[in-house]
Amino acid sequence: MRNFFVKYEEISDPNYGSYPGSRSVEELINNSVVIIDKPPGPTSHQVVTWVRNILGSKKAGHSGTLDPGVTGVLVVTLGKACKIMPALMGLDKEYIALMELHDDVQEDLLEEVLEKFTGKIKQIPPRKSAVKRKIRVREIYEIKILEREGRRVLMDIKCQKGTYIRKLIHDIGKKLGCGAHMRELRRIKVGPFGEDIAVRLQDLKDAYVMWKENGDTKIKEYLRPVEFGVEHLKKVIVKDSAVNALANGAPLGIGGISRIEEGITPDEMVAIFTEKGELLGLGYASMSTEEAMKKRHGLFAKIDTVMMDKDTYPKMWGQTKKKND
User: Fold this and answer.
1) Would you call 240 a catalytic residue per the annotation?
2) CATH for 4-20+233-324, among 3.40.190.10, 2.30.130.10, 3.30.420.130, 3.40.50.2020?
3) What is the DSSP string of 81-95?
């Protein structure tokens, strides 16, 4: 349950903007998020290229690379939605991994060693990685054994972004003294985005063809509005009268806030929305929710990324100032 504080009561003018749920398929193709169930074989880059070609989108990107042999959740952004990538890059991950031990290991010893790898660990990225090979600290939130058959161990691993699971399993085997390697890996969650909403490439293509041929809108189940991609961020709702100024890059002053979510802290990335639920942009808070509720004037957030077109709402800058003076 998300709690919001009301700063100023306002009803949005229906003549401007639009509700995200009312967008056409054409609009979604150029500004949406698709959760893809990546198959084994292709690189993440190849999958993104296929998504772009299937939908005829001019631009597409992804957050969090999966190796060619790894399957599972790949968050793909389309068109303008690529601009929300900073909000997607730091998300935690969850994997199902199949580890093969190189010798027999007692259950109690295995559980004891896995416990030692829970918490903050040190990793050196593998030689084939795209990052510099130096010691990095990553956090493993949980390692849970799901099944075990002899030397094969199926595990659920929740971890911080940037954790190398193959390296983790190698290090576990080394600690056990017998060695181990990763046989299979599937990513089942990226932040709040789980495999339960992921779509296979062939199903996405079928839905697109059905839409083109007979207007079937099932594809809307897969093309999620850009707002869906920032649901994990805390929100600030702004007045209609502030929208045009913010869309032109102006900072968000306290006087432009309609409602604000509980728990925002200084320097935290926030999602800025209109009263209709449209994502206006992303910004960094200059103060906490509590401070903003106490004050009548001052800068609340600097806009880092503008998502809305400048002419979506009319200029009302003078009205905002006059109302707040």
Assistant:
1) no
2) 2.30.130.10
3) GGGGHHHHTT--EEE
